[in-house]
TrEMBL record:
Protein name, as recorded: Hsp20/alpha crystallin family protein
Similarity-based family: Belongs to the small heat shock protein (HSP20) family.
Domain of life: Bacteria
Pfam families listed in its UniProt record: HSP20
Protein backbone atom coordinates (compact mmCIF):
# COMPACT_ATOMS: atom_id res chain seq x y z
CA UNK A 1 0.00 0.00 0.00
CA UNK A 2 2.79 2.46 0.88
CA UNK A 3 4.50 1.78 -2.44
CA UNK A 4 1.22 2.57 -4.28
CA UNK A 5 0.84 5.90 -2.45
CA UNK A 6 4.43 6.78 -3.32
CA UNK A 7 3.63 6.35 -6.99
CA UNK A 8 0.77 8.85 -6.70
CA UNK A 9 2.78 11.48 -4.81
CA UNK A 10 5.60 12.99 -6.92
CA UNK A 11 9.03 12.28 -5.44
CA UNK A 12 10.23 15.88 -5.74
CA UNK A 13 7.55 17.06 -3.28
CA UNK A 14 8.44 16.85 0.38
CA UNK A 15 5.47 16.81 2.70
CA UNK A 16 4.22 19.20 3.94
CA UNK A 17 6.27 22.25 2.93
CA UNK A 18 9.54 21.05 1.45
CA UNK A 19 11.08 21.37 -1.97
CA UNK A 20 8.91 22.42 -4.87
CA UNK A 21 6.09 23.94 -2.82
CA UNK A 22 6.69 27.65 -3.33
CA UNK A 23 4.36 29.22 -5.91
CA UNK A 24 7.38 31.14 -7.23
CA UNK A 25 9.51 28.01 -7.55
CA UNK A 26 10.39 27.26 -11.17
CA UNK A 27 13.09 24.66 -10.51
CA UNK A 28 13.62 22.02 -13.17
CA UNK A 29 12.97 18.39 -12.36
CA UNK A 30 16.55 17.30 -13.18
CA UNK A 31 19.34 17.39 -10.59
CA UNK A 32 18.82 17.78 -6.87
CA UNK A 33 16.80 20.80 -5.77
CA UNK A 34 18.47 22.98 -3.16
CA UNK A 35 16.64 23.53 0.10
CA UNK A 36 15.97 27.23 0.47
CA UNK A 37 14.21 29.70 2.71
CA UNK A 38 12.87 33.04 1.51
CA UNK A 39 11.93 36.05 3.61
CA UNK A 40 11.80 39.85 3.59
CA UNK A 41 14.24 41.75 5.77
CA UNK A 42 14.97 45.49 5.84
CA UNK A 43 13.36 46.03 2.42
CA UNK A 44 15.25 43.14 0.78
CA UNK A 45 14.20 39.75 -0.47
CA UNK A 46 16.55 37.25 1.18
CA UNK A 47 16.99 33.76 -0.25
CA UNK A 48 19.15 31.38 1.77
CA UNK A 49 20.26 27.99 0.41
CA UNK A 50 21.90 25.13 2.30
CA UNK A 51 25.00 24.12 0.33
CA UNK A 52 27.55 22.70 2.78
CA UNK A 53 30.85 21.25 1.65
CA UNK A 54 31.41 23.33 -1.48
CA UNK A 55 33.88 26.00 -2.55
CA UNK A 56 31.80 29.12 -3.29
CA UNK A 57 34.48 30.47 -5.64
CA UNK A 58 34.49 27.34 -7.81
CA UNK A 59 31.26 25.40 -7.28
CA UNK A 60 28.42 27.96 -7.14
CA UNK A 61 26.78 30.13 -9.77
CA UNK A 62 24.10 32.75 -9.04
CA UNK A 63 22.33 34.42 -11.97
CA UNK A 64 19.27 36.57 -12.53
CA UNK A 65 17.57 36.42 -15.91
CA UNK A 66 14.07 37.43 -16.99
CA UNK A 67 12.93 37.89 -13.39
CA UNK A 68 14.18 34.47 -12.25
CA UNK A 69 16.91 33.92 -9.65
CA UNK A 70 18.93 30.79 -10.47
CA UNK A 71 21.24 29.20 -7.91
CA UNK A 72 23.27 26.24 -9.11
CA UNK A 73 26.05 24.31 -7.39
CA UNK A 74 28.11 21.19 -7.87
CA UNK A 75 29.66 19.00 -5.20
CA UNK A 76 32.24 16.37 -6.18
CA UNK A 77 32.12 13.05 -4.40
CA UNK A 78 35.12 12.37 -2.21
CA UNK A 79 34.85 8.81 -1.02
CA UNK A 80 36.59 7.49 2.04
CA UNK A 81 36.70 3.84 2.97
CA UNK A 82 37.74 2.43 6.30
CA UNK A 83 38.21 -1.32 6.28
CA UNK A 84 35.39 -3.10 4.51
CA UNK A 85 32.66 -0.69 5.59
CA UNK A 86 31.42 2.22 3.47
CA UNK A 87 28.46 4.50 4.00
CA UNK A 88 27.54 7.97 2.77
CA UNK A 89 24.23 9.80 3.06
CA UNK A 90 25.61 12.98 1.50
CA UNK A 91 24.27 14.16 -1.85
CA UNK A 92 26.79 14.71 -4.60
CA UNK A 93 26.42 16.04 -8.11
CA UNK A 94 24.55 19.05 -9.45
CA UNK A 95 22.07 21.07 -7.43
CA UNK A 96 19.82 23.82 -8.74
CA UNK A 97 16.99 26.08 -7.68
CA UNK A 98 15.11 28.69 -9.71
CA UNK A 99 12.88 31.22 -7.99
CA UNK A 100 10.67 33.74 -9.76
CA UNK A 101 11.36 37.18 -8.30
CA UNK A 102 8.60 39.56 -7.23
CA UNK A 103 7.71 42.27 -9.70
CA UNK A 104 9.84 45.37 -9.19
CA UNK A 105 12.79 43.56 -7.58
CA UNK A 106 16.01 45.51 -8.15
CA UNK A 107 18.09 42.95 -10.05
CA UNK A 108 20.90 45.48 -10.61
CA UNK A 109 21.75 45.42 -6.89
CA UNK A 110 21.90 41.67 -6.15
CA UNK A 111 24.48 40.52 -3.58
CA UNK A 112 25.47 36.98 -2.57
CA UNK A 113 27.52 35.75 0.39
CA UNK A 114 28.53 32.30 1.62
CA UNK A 115 29.16 31.44 5.25
CA UNK A 116 29.07 28.23 7.29
CA UNK A 117 27.56 26.20 4.43
CA UNK A 118 24.76 28.67 3.68
CA UNK A 119 24.55 30.82 0.54
CA UNK A 120 22.60 34.05 1.09
CA UNK A 121 21.31 36.13 -1.82
CA UNK A 122 19.84 39.59 -1.18
CA UNK A 123 18.12 41.98 -3.53
CA UNK A 124 16.17 45.15 -2.82
CA UNK A 125 12.40 45.10 -3.17
CA UNK A 126 10.19 48.09 -3.88
CA UNK A 127 8.34 49.52 -0.92
CA UNK A 128 5.02 47.79 -0.42
CA UNK A 129 2.09 49.96 -1.32
CA UNK A 130 -1.28 49.68 0.35
CA UNK A 131 -3.91 48.09 -1.86
CA UNK A 132 -6.56 50.74 -1.20
CA UNK A 133 -5.95 54.44 -1.10
CA UNK A 134 -8.54 57.00 -0.10
CA UNK A 135 -8.66 60.01 -2.46
CA UNK A 136 -10.18 63.20 -1.06
CA UNK A 137 -12.67 64.99 -3.31
CA UNK A 138 -12.25 68.75 -3.52
CA UNK A 139 -14.89 71.28 -4.56
CA UNK A 140 -14.00 73.49 -7.46
Amino acid sequence: MTRDLGALWPARWDWPFGEGTSPRDTSPVSGFPLRVEEFREDGDLVVRAEIPGIDPDEDVEVTVDNGVLRISAHREERTRQEGDEFRSEFRYGSFERRIRLPQGADVADVAATYRDGVLEVRLPLPAERPETRSVPVQRT
